[in-house]
Structure formats: C-alpha cells, structure tokens
C-alpha cells in the first residue's frame, strides 16, 4: 500500500482576503472560520513522525499566517520535517517575517492574480498587491540566503493570463525561483465559468493561452526562473496532482481527507463542464484516532488508484468523489 510522504495541514479556515473565486467568499454566510488548536497540531506532528512523513505544507481554506501560534507551529514542524506554506503575502512583515527568517522554511509560496495592482486587487480583494510586493522585496533576500525556495502561484483567469510574461519578469526581480501557473480547478459557483481559461473536455488547449505561455517561457529562460503548469484542456489521468496516494490533508478540526477539495462543507457545490452539484466530503476519520486507523480506512480509496496505475488497458473508474473533478483531469 502507498506510503504517506506528505501532510498538508489547514491550520486556519479564516482569511483576511475575499478572493472572488474562493469558497470562503462564495459561502461567506455559512462558512465557519477557526484555528487549529496547538495541542492538536502537536498530535499531527507526532502522527506524522510515526507515519514517516517527510514534508509538511501549511495550507488549507484560509490564511495560515493569521493563526496566533503560527511561528510555534512552524518551529515544531521544522524539528521533524521539511516544511513549506502558502500565503497571500499580506502579513509577511514585522515580527512575523523576522520569526520566519529565524526559524527557517523550505518552501514559501505566495499567490498572485495579475501583474498590476488593478488586476490583482480586482480578483483578490483584501490582498493588496503593492503591500505584497513590498513584503517580498524585503523578505526574499533573507530567506534565499538560508536556502528557502520561493514560489509564486499565478492564477490564470480570463484576463490575468495576458499579463503572464510581465509577471515572470517581475517575479525574477523579486527573487522568485519558480512561477507555478494555477487554474480554476475548483469552481464553487456557475458564474465563475466565465473566468476560466481552459477549454472543455475533448477540445484543444486554447491557442491564445498557449501562445502567451510560450512567450512567458522565453522570459523565464532569460531570467533564470522556472515556469511550471498543468494542462489547459481536461484529460483524465490515473491520479491527480493532489497525489492522494501519498498525501493526506488534515483540517483545523483534525479531520483527515484525501485532499483539500474533498474537505469542503456538504453545502458547497462543484461545477464541472457547466453543471454544478453538491459534492459530499470524504473523511477518513480524525487524526486524534491515530494514523493506523486513518490508513486502514483509506485502503479502499487508495486501492482504486493502485489498480488504475497497474492497468495495462482501460483503467478502472476513479473513486466516486473524484469523478468530475478538474484536478483528476490535470487542470
């Protein structure tokens, strides 16, 4: 059976941003914001050590830097694993930034949706573009001196993709090592369909998007920045980039899921090929029960992916909760 190498831990389900495409914004009238208790995080670390986990990434449906004990969590995790986190970048300043530099971090990922404040702030209200740039300019040299890999997550939307070549140049100036393109893999509302840049199933990848990416790659090569991306036309793969056979997602309450997308509340819907429906969450139990109980409950789920990978011809269907998820189609 597959080994668990990665714990993704959602230490916060509250955020200081209001991104237009995020379920926290779409379902703000129902969403419950909370922080993981430090004692629970200690248990997560203990179970991770017992399971042989190598890497822990602090990211979920919320901003991890809002957690009042984020630095303590980072310090504890760093004693046992390689550690990274994803942030909107607004709080990467002051004593928090100094603490991160002192403790150290292996991967720092910051999310963007444009190369200009006008574009970025339109899609990510509350995440001021100029503040993020100022924070990164101050912090990046200090982190890179200690070996931190800095990744810029760039959201490809209806008009932001056109700014990509300019963003790659900006990222190089900021000291970013990699620009990773992100799609609207999860659409919680049909209105967001108009923002996506990828095509429908069986349609070719949009030529205008590919042309922009080619231009951006030329800039990346000249700037020494890695540019990575998935597909822009859905094509089913044997396993999605969330790597559920080797990764577990643990939310702020300690519930364990195959991935962050299957941890959403039952009232949340998933839109796929212009049709939307509610998608029940899939929990393997709570980490407080111990990693052995979790691994036992996930055997059937993981076994399906194992059979798909071993198939020589037509693979078995994916697990029911994974059907009609764009991540499985490498978006």
Automatic annotation (TrEMBL):
Pfam families: Radical_SAM, SPASM
Domain Radical SAM core, residue spans: 1-214
SMART domains per record: Elp3
GO MF, one annotated term: catalytic activity
Cofactors, names only: [4Fe-4S] cluster
Membrane-traversing stretches: none
This protein's UniProt keywords: 4Fe-4S, Iron, Iron-sulfur, Metal-binding, S-adenosyl-L-methionine
InterPro entries: 4Fe4S-binding_SPASM_dom (IPR023885), AdoMet-like_SPASM_containing (IPR034391), Aldolase_TIM (IPR013785), Elp3/MiaA/NifB-like_rSAM (IPR006638), Radical_SAM_PqqE_MftC-like (IPR050377), rSAM (IPR007197), rSAM_sf (IPR058240)
This protein's name: Radical SAM domain protein
Organism, as annotated: Pyrobaculum arsenaticum (strain DSM 13514 / JCM 11321 / PZ6)
């Amino acid at each position: 059976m597959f080994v668990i190498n990665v714990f993704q831990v959602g230490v916060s389900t509250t955020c200081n941003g209001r991104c237009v495409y995020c379920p926290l914004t779409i379902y703000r009238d129902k969403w419950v914001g909370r922080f993981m208790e430090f004692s629970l995080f200690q248990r997560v670390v203990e179970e991770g050590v017992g399971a042989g986990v190598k890497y822990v990434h602090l990211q979920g449906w919320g901003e991890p830097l809002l957690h009042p004990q984020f630095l303590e969590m980072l310090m504890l995790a760093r004693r046992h694993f390689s550690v990274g986190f994803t942030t909107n970048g607004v709080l990467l300043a002051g004593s928090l930034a100094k603490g991160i530099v002192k403790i150290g971090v292996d991967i720092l990922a910051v999310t963007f949706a444009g190369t200009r404040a006008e574009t970025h702030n339109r899609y990510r209200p509350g995440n001021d573009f100029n503040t993020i740039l100022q924070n990164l300019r101050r912090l990046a040299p200090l982190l890179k001196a200690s070996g931190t890999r800095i990744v810029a997550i760039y959201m490809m939307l209806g008009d932001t993709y056109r700014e990509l070549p300019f963003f790659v140049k900006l990222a190089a100036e900021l000291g970013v090592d990699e620009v990773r393109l992100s799609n609207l893999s999860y659409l919680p509302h049909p209105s967001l369909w108009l923002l996506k840049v990828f095509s429908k199933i069986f349609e070719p990848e949009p030529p205008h998007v590919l042309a922009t990416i080619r231009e951006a790659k030329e800039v990346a090569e000249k700037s020494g920045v890695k540019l990575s991306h998935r597909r822009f036309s859905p094509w089913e793969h044997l396993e999605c980039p969330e790597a559920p056979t080797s990764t577990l997602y643990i939310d702020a309450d300690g519930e364990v899921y195959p991935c962050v997308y299957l941890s959403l509340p039952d009232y949340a819907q998933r839109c796929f090929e212009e049709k939307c429906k509610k998608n029940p969450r899939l929990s393997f139990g709570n980490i407080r029960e111990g990693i052995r109980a979790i691994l036992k409950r996930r055997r059937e789920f993981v076994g399906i992916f194992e059979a798909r990978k071993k198939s020589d011809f037509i693979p078995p269907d994916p697990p029911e909760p994974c059907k009609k998820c764009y991540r499985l189609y490498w978006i």
